[in-house]
Amino acid sequence: MPNEPKILAFFDEPTNTVSYLVVDPAAKEAAVIDPVLDYDHRSGKATTTSADAILAKAKADGLTITLVLETHAHADHLSGAPYIKLKTGAKVGIGEHIREVQKIFRPIFNAYDVSGDGSEFDLLFKDGEHIKLGSLDIEVIHTPGHTPACIVYKIGSHVFVGDTLFMPDYGTARADFPGGSARQLYHSMKKLLSLPPETRLYMCHDYKAPGRDHYAWETTVSEERAKNPHIHDGVTEDDYVAMREARDAKLAAPMLLLPSIQVNIRAGKMPQPDANGITYLKIPVTLTA
Fold first, then answer.
1. pTM, whole model, 2 decimals?
2. Which CATH number is correct for 6-253, 3.40.50.300, 3.30.450.20, 3.60.15.10, 1.20.1440.230?
3. Which of 217, 238, 252, 262 is the most buried (most CB within 10 A)?
4. Reduced 3-state DSSP string for 59-106
């Protein structure tokens, strides 16, 4: 019987993001999924408090971090991947369709230092690819819809879903970012919900559903199928698309959308400093009548 991973969650309340330290207990080898760089949009200051907490736990437990795994180019937080790579030598991986995301956003930010071929990342994963973490086998599943590059990581009966799903009492992710598709998202979610009912699902975000006074980020396939108001059994593809597109039309942009995207398509690295040695993030401005 294959080894089961040990899974430790780290919740960042300012961005409602859950990062995970996934451990092969036998090999003492670990991967970090979706790490956060703490960024204050009002001051432009960034700190590594969240990533340091993960590193401290890994050190205390005698773990070697060898991988940093991104589920997608996040639009709501800056990635802490480069810092963890700097401290551990871990390789940073993401789905191969990050190339499409880079090409979509490169002209928006006039960011022509961005490759468009994904080479900012150490590893680009294909759908169905298998990665080794010690003795653990990690399967990559492509789940486009929220973004073209979204993937999930499946380790036995444990699945890290990124923004493909939210908790059963909250619903599903938006699909209106450039390259997103509610119809694709429906099929991606159905792919996940066809897994065995006891499969455990680990969210990337939680916002406390109405009536729930605590954060939560673990559920099962069976709970999603029975209770999720957006995608429970019985919701048709056309029903979902109509609902999702109507909801998305009323949503404001995430507060950290503009800084997050331009950093995260660079594998979490900041743009090159200007001649004065200062790094700047760009804010495209659109004047409307």
1. 0.96
2. 3.60.15.10
3. 262
4. HHCCCEEEEEECCCCCCCCEECHHHHHHHHCCEEEEECCHHHHHHHHC
